[in-house]
Amino acid sequence: MKSKAMKLAIISMAFLMLATGALYLFVSTQAIAEASQAFNENAGKPQEFESGAFIETAFFAAVGAAYIPIGLWATITRHTSKVPYILAIGGSVALIGLYILSRNADIPFVGQQDDVGFIDILSKVLQGGIIAVSTYIIMSIRREKKASLLA
CA 20 to 30 Å from 43, out of 27, 78, 95, 146? Predict the structure, then answer.
């Protein structure tokens, strides 16, 4: 690795990816805990479980589980591959877009959401950071490759 800035960017990227993955996993475990508590309060009688809540919980768990290995992959490959950074940008842009869409349109299974909480804002800030840092790393990789070709 040639510069301290690139080293710092890769460490920042790993932190942002791990933090975002942990946040999404936290949200999914909270939803599971709430469903379990509701089940226990109803004396073990199954109540009607919203399919949207199940899909949302599974989605959050899958997203959290995906962010962590991509962050580790980006850390391992460092500046040799743009692929994990491109995936991180694409996934983060898609999740921000889905969040905005879910607040403005009626999405099947989930409906239109009207809540905006601290965790929502925190996850979008982390994802914005992932997009910014990943873009910086990709541009740095391009510059290094151009410089090595010209040398």
Answer: 27
